Amino acid sequence: MDDALEQWLSRVEAYLLAWTYSRQITVDYAETGNGVAQYRCRVLLVDNSLLQCVERARVEPEGLQIERYSFHWQRADGSLIRRWDNAPYHREISSFPHHIHVGEESHVLPHVAVNVFQVLENIETVLAEPQ
Questions:
Q1: 3-state helix, strand, coil in the chain (%, to 5)
Q2: What is the pLDDT of residues 85-104, one digit of tens each?
Q3: Model-level pTM greater than 0.85?
Q4: Is 105 exposed, middle or buried (0-12, 13-18, 19+ CB in 10 A)?
Q5: Which of 82, 18, 22 lies closest to 46 in space, CA to CA?
Q6: How far apart are the C-alpha atoms of 35 and 2, rounded to whole Å?
Q7: Does residue 2 carry a pLDDT above 80?
Q8: DSSP 3-state assignment of 69?
Q9: How far is CA 19 from CA 11, 13, 54, 88, in A?
Q10: What is the mean pLDDT of the chain?
């Protein structure tokens, strides 16, 4: 079980290091134990925005399950672009606990559960758009 979790952590780190839009990666922690794996990292993007990633995963009979996540993407000045998370707030949202903050903390919308790879794909789409 821990092998699968360690492989997942390695895959996440390798993807972030090779990602076209990353300039610098800082891993605050990446650890496995007691049947879970978790990490926290910060990714400086080529446009000087910052993505802070937190994920916690567990292996279940149906496969790897992400239990907790938060992906906070902000501009260089610290203003929020988007934050995807599953913190147990916003019970009024139809996709509870999964939601997204867009542009500001108070602008909360329903959203499907995501993982780091889906978030990076979303960011790629935004950054590839002509300004």
A1: 25, 45, 35
A2: 999 999 999 999 999 999 99
A3: yes
A4: exposed
A5: 22
A6: 6
A7: no
A8: strand
A9: 12, 10, 17, 30
A10: 94
What's residue 41's pLDDT? 98
Give dist(CA 74, CA 50) in Å, integer. Answer: 5
Nearest Cα neighbor of 19 from 45, 49, 48, 56 is: 45
pLDDT grade, residue 1 (50/70/90)?
A: low
Helices (H), the chain: 2-18, 116-128
Q: What is the pLDDT of residue 123?
A: 97
As a whole number of angstroms, the distance between CA 62 and CA 42 comes to 30
* Residue pair 112/93 in contact by the 8 Å Cβ criterion: no
